[in-house]
């Protein structure tokens, strides 16, 4: 586990926990690391919510697929980030999303019940861990409302500009990178890919933005 410490130090779940406690914690929590190939399903929709995951290498998408097979990307999970924590903490019997590896990835899985219920050893780091988890859940809730703000817009243009505006604000610059390719961006915005590409071309011609692959500049 020690080889992953540089990544785990960046994970919000372990804020304020030193390396000695971190090693003990991972043992106490029964953390396990599993490798997944590209496009492999890490957590399947309709499965019981038990584990939360941490991306140690690679990346993954949290997706939702409707009755007709249309895919929406709810979020992208990058290295050191956590996923499925809300469902695992709630202990829902049927999880409504899937988590799919974007590339060969190493994922740490932790049974959420081991976090929420203190062990017989009365480990001192447990309270810090629960505090960190609550903070993560609060931040994810804010991200959820941000996505509602984006997808509630009526047109592809409005959705795209709202999303890019939020990304520019987050980056603190009018030049920034987004974590999506064109298809993934279309799935995140819940729009048609060809319509999205056409709208980006129009905005370039109008002098509203410049773009190259996943790099954007708002003018």
Question: TL;DR of this structure?
Answer:
The protein is built from eight helices and eleven strands. With 219 residues, it is an alpha+beta fold.
Structure description:
The chain is an alpha+beta fold. The protein folds into 2 domains: 2-139, Jelly Rolls (Sandwich); 153-218, Winged helix-like DNA-binding domain superfamily/Winged helix DNA-binding domain (Arc Repressor Mutant, subunit A), CATH 1.10.10. It is 41% helix and 24% strand. The chain has a 4-stranded antiparallel beta sheet with strand order 1-8-3-6. A 4-stranded antiparallel beta sheet has the order 2-7-4-5. The longest helix is centred in the middle third of the chain and has 26 residues, at 126-151. The mean pLDDT is 87.
